[in-house]
Amino acid sequence: MPLMAASQAVQRSIDAKLLVLAADGTLLHAPRSELLRFLRAGDVVVANDAATLPASLRGMHVPSGAEIEVRLAGIRSLSADALRRCRAVVLGAGDFHARTEHRPLPPPLAPGDRLRLGPLMATVEATLGHPRLVALVLEGSTAEIWAGIARHGRPIQYAHLLAPLALWDVWTPIAGRPVSFEAPSAGFALDWRLVAEMHRRGIRFATLTHAAGISSTGDPALDAHLPFDEPYAISEATVRAVRCARTRGSRVVAVGTTVVRALEHAAAGGTLRCGEGVATQRIGPDTRLAVVDAILSGTHEPGSSHYELIRAFADDAVLRRVDAELELRGYRTHEFGDSVLVERRCATLASKREAVAAIAA
Q: What is residue 13's predicted lDDT score, i.e. its pLDDT?
């Protein structure tokens, strides 16, 4: 029996569940409100502070007159004018009430095609090897582009949610720069009272900014390439917090898959560095994690890009036990669902020493 999707946009549901998978394979169930029970003094908890754009733009393919929906899906940097040239997924007629996999293809798209998206005009700069995926150029000044998206755009939404999303539904409590295309939804479990209590208990809280991309395009061939390349920025303060935790032998706990991607990419050269970058790697069962010891995440179905990343933390046999428990206990999936806290499987002492030396360098 598959997991049931959460159908209401409630970020901190009072009945939200938490499954905890310890490094030794032990499974525990608790209310998500008791998350602090499973954090330790000295841990550093790192969350993504990106705010979510209203990245769904309904409009028309000018050459054919056909109705389309454009879902902005990727930018090359976090600069304010990066939206001018972006990657986008284009769907045919319909809206979120239809399952994404049932949405029709758009009309054939070609370089030079113009798209009318409410108050904005856009041009297809290139097709990217799939009928739904294009490089798009939005016309107008940076201010006009942002204003047009703000007025006309809606949050990207899927059929499991019954009512239209408002923008505040998809902003986490710590949201800052609007650079994500879908919400970094693991952060829905946070609030500022929780952060204050972390501080009181000696648990450090840090943030980074990562432009979270889309979770599904509705096309298996295209979804196999997710996640797309995603830009991020990590502050010196966050790097110092991570290095201190690693030096002390404390854990680095990532709130969401985007945090894992950013931290692991920024440490790919052997030393965790601050600044901006673009996460191009795909993390999976063969990935040797250098920075992150545990992840707080939503529940994800096998085969999704989010689930593939969690395979870096636990063996498949253990994850099958987790999946069975999630189904048995009625956990809800998708962005407003329940949560899992997965600690990285036990590493050898030598591997731990190597990781501490690299991150602390």
A: 87
Give me the long-range contacts of 91-97 (CB less than 8 A, separation at least 24). 91/132, 91/218, 92/66, 92/67, 92/68, 93/66, 93/67, 93/68, 94/69, 95/58, 95/69, 96/56, 96/157, 96/158, 96/159, 96/161, 96/164, 97/159
pLDDT digits (tens, 9 = 90+) for 93-144: 999 989 899 999 999 999 999 999 999 999 999 999 999 999 999 999 999 9
The C-alpha atoms of residue 90 and residue 68 are separated, in whole angstroms, by 7
The tens digit of pLDDT for each residue in 200-222 reads 999 999 999 999 999 888 889 99
Helical pair 349-360 and 236-248, crossing angle rounded to 10 deg? 150
Q: Reduced to 3 DSSP states, what percent helix, strand and coil does the chain have, rounded to the nearest 5? A: 30, 25, 45
List C-alpha distances in Å: 210 to 84, 144, 149, 278. 18, 24, 20, 9
3-state SS class at 328: helix
Q: How many CA atoms lie within 13 A of 274 on its CB side?
A: 12
Q: Which amino acid is at 360?
A: A
Q: Which two tokens stand for residue 146?
A: 């942002």
Domains of the chain in sequence order: 4-52+164-360 (3.40.1780.10), 56-152 (2.40.10)
Read off the pLDDT of residues 301-342 as tens digits, 9 standing for 90 and up.
898 899 999 999 999 999 999 999 999 999 999 889 999 999
Backbone angles phi, psi at 302, to 5 degrees: -55, 140
